[in-house]
Amino acid sequence: MKSRFSNIRYSYIISHLTALFLTLITILAILLSIYVLFSPTWLTANSIFLFIGLYAIISFFISIYVGFRSSGELKQRMDYMSLLIKQFANGNYQSRIYLNEGDEINRFGNDLNELGEKLQNQVKSLQRLADEKAELAKSAHKSAVMEERQRIARDLHDAVSQQLFALAMMSEAAIKQIEHNPSLAKEQMVEVAGAAHQAQSEMRALLLHLRPVHLSGDPLPKGIQKLVQELKQKSQIDFELVIDETIKLSEATEEHVFRIIQESLSNILRHANATEVKLEIFKRGKELFMHIADNGKGFELTGDNEKKTSYGLKTMRERSEELGGTFTIRSNVNEGTYIDIRIPC
Length: 345
Description:
The protein is α+β, with helices and mostly antiparallel strands. It has helices spanning 8-37, 45-89, 104-139, 141-177, 182-209, 220-234, 251-272, 304-308, 310-322, and strands at residues 238-243, 276-284, 287-294, 326-331, 337-344.
């Protein structure tokens, strides 16, 4: 209720009613002063209060009507500007507002239009820089391959090799317990199976990173379909892919989008323990939309689990922002993870 009566329309009405009240007090004071000092025959106490009462009633309704009508146009223009700002916040920099009045609000609308044009030019500059960056990346391919090999080696040492060592230790312990304590040996073999499954997921994620950075000449939809089809054959995850076959982007943008998809699927394989993954990629207007959802264990965005996936999420966010896009993630424990990305085309 408080927010409703604090908008500009009711502020206009309240200001008119305030002016009415002050006018009534002023007129009443003047008439009473004349009545007391001069006592004219035409001015009586009854006529004073009758005049004040009629004036208050009529002016009250007129003030409400005038305040409501005079604030309507101003409120509408401000709503237009508020909508334009929301469009800018959502990455739609092509939106514009057109006002015919020559007041301060019109100048404010023109400033917003100029801001939108500058933001749109910045997006184009970012995409042009992304194209230039792609060319530089090609010239530095050898060093990039070496760096990727070193990172894969670190991941193998930090994750898979330690899990394989643990598998060996638990297997040896289970073998020793088979004859003396079969129930304990069974529990240890269950742990071995879980560790083997985790190591397998880690290896799938690392193999996913070993795929070439480029799409090998394939268009983006076909490259993503090949990637998902390969993962369907090598994992127990049920993938649902919805992709617009007519999507056409620049080479640099396609490579960034492909790597974003690779990184997101790698995170799901390594951390989510998901059984279902939904991937939607479509183009609406002049924007590319990506929605990636899984039914995994999820995580708190400020907790320890977020730190484990922070490198991959940071990479995805950086790639999205390099293209002038927006990156949004939602996740809760035992409620899965949802990623939405919007990239201007």
